[in-house]
Write a structure and sequence with these properties.
about 450 residues; mainly alpha; Fumarase C, Chain B, domain 1; Fumarase C, Chain A, domain 2; 3 domains; two-stranded antiparallel sheet; about 65% helix; about 5% strand
Length: about 450
């Protein structure tokens, strides 16, 4: 490789992870344009209050574009002066001619950077919310479709009681709805800008300082921070990363469930596999790995790992230090790119999810009826047996059934104490999984309608 020719290193940059639309938001030139947008709004606000001539503001606004302020030139200046924002100011001033004297008037670097970050995050949250709503839509449809698809419910990895696939998916759906709610609530505190100067007092902006700040934010279409120092306080960004980590963990949870269900021993749910060309293993031709779900789970670990440094960024020396700057250059774009990409992957997984209903039916029979022991106990209680005595009797019978590998029904029908209370029909009904779903189907109907109602309200 020739000296000086740098190749991408991180998998986001190589194109392995991340959607094009999200990466474009945080791409260097777009970030530069957003900072120029803030500088343009500042010049316009100064002209509005009469601090600078309108024609000079208009010249700055015209030149505050990457058509004129080239990224290459900004980097050349930064190599000399070692300050990224000051480099942008100098190049914009160069391009603005005599009007350049009014560029960045009264502002500090983080007036521009923090406000530009708010603009970037506004766009990023828009993409994330849209994809999360799509995940919710798919889950609504799947929950409704499979509300009667019976399967084994599992606790501790063991068969517990029968549930339906729709009931399981409805739980995922409501978790997604809560995450959407968290993001929307976080947005209110996150998408704010400021124009408050070197320590937050707005002294450098003169007597029209408050009005200038108000006008800048109005021009940019974001809210203003109620109060700030040299920076917008980092609890806002920390909240975002914590919320994103919760969202990532929810996606991790769904993906982990699907991975478990794709195991040949269970084989009830499968992510899509392109049989004509997709390769599952470099050495084992038979492999059909849940690799998309595994990717989601792996990236969730990375996103959760961003929580620590984002919380540490809340702490700052007095009105400002530089400890947040370097870490959040990674944290903010990485958190957005990863969550957006995980949602993109989950949309694909859920849209093309394969359900094996016949396997679910076979798996219900694995324990030879023992899974229905609670139903039998409830029936015994209804017929007059002491609940605790029924529990102990059935515990012994389930152990015997498992050790002797005999159907649970046989032991029930042979047991004299059981037959004192239950007829053959009672036993048959108690061992029927379809008759022991409780309110599962009704709950799905209620929660699907609730989620649809919430969506209509948002629209």
């Amino acid at each position: 490789m020739l000296l000086g020719m740098l190749m991408p290193i991180l998998p986001i940059d190589t194109g392995r992870y991340g959607t094009k639309e999200m990466k474009l938001i945080f791409e260097e030139e777009n970030r530069l344009q957003r900072m120029l947008d803030v500088e343009a709004a500042l010049a316009w606000a100064h002209a509005e209050v009469g601090d600078i001539p309108r024609e000079d503001a208009e010249k700055i606004m015209k030149k505050a574009s990457t058509r004129y302020v080239k990224l290459k030139r900004v980097k050349e200046v930064e190599q000399k002066i070692k300050h990224d924002l000051a480099s942008i100011v100098r190049v914009l001033a160069e391009q603005s001619g005599s009007s350049g004297t009014y560029v960045h008037l009264g502002a500090t670097s983080y007036d521009i950077i923090d406000t530009a970050n708010a603009l970037l995050l506004k766009d990023a949250l828009g993409l994330i919310e849209h994809k999360m709503e799509r995940v919710e839509d798919i889950l609504i449809e799947k929950a409704d479709k499979h509300k009667g698809t019976i399967m084994a419910g599992r606790t501790h990895g063991q068969h517990a009681l029968p549930i339906t696939l729709g009931f399981k998916i409805a739980n995922w759906m409501r978790e997604t709805a809560r995450n959407l709610q968290r993001i929307k609530q976080c947005r209110e505190r996150l998408i704010v800008g400021k124009m408050s100067g070197a320590v937050g007092t707005q002294a450098g902006l003169g007597r029209h300082a408050a009005k200038i700040q108000e006008l800048v934010m109005k021009k940019l279409g974001i809210e203003l921070a109620d109060i700030s120092t040299q920076i917008v306080q980092r609890d806002r960004h920390a909240e975002m990363v914590c919320v994103f980590a919760i969202c990532a963990s929810s996606l991790d949870n769904i993906a982990t469930e699907i991975r478990e269900f794709q195991r040949p021993e269970i084989a009830e749910l499968f992510e899509a596999f392109e049989y004509k060309k997709q390769v599952g293993s470099s050495t084992m031709p038979h492999k059909r790995n849940p690799e998309i779900c595994e990717r989601i789970c792996g990236l969730a670990k990375v996103l959760r790992g961003l929580v620590g440094p984002s919380l540490e960024n809340v702490v700052t020396w007095h009105e400002r230090d530089l400890t947040q700057s370097s870490s959040e250059r990674f944290i903010i774009p990485e958190a957005c790119v990863l969550l957006d990409y995980m949602l993109f992957l989950m949309i694909d997984v859920l849209t093309n999810l394969r359900v094996d209903k016949s396997r679910m039916q076979r798996n219900l029979k694995i324990t030879e009826g023992r899974m229905m022991s609670e139903a039998v106990m409830s029936t015994l209680f209804e017929k007059g047996m002491n609940r605790q005595e029924a529990h102990e009797l059935l515990r012994k019978l389930t152990v015997e059934s498992e050790i002797e590998d005999r159907p649970f029904r046989d032991l029930l029908t042979e047991n004299k104490e059981i037959r004192r209370f239950l007829t053959d029909k009672n036993i048959t009904d108690a061992l029927n999984p379809m008759k022991y779903l409780g309110t599962a189907i009704e709950q799905v109907d209620i929660i699907v309608e609730k989620t649809r109602r919430e969506r209509r309200k948002k629209a």
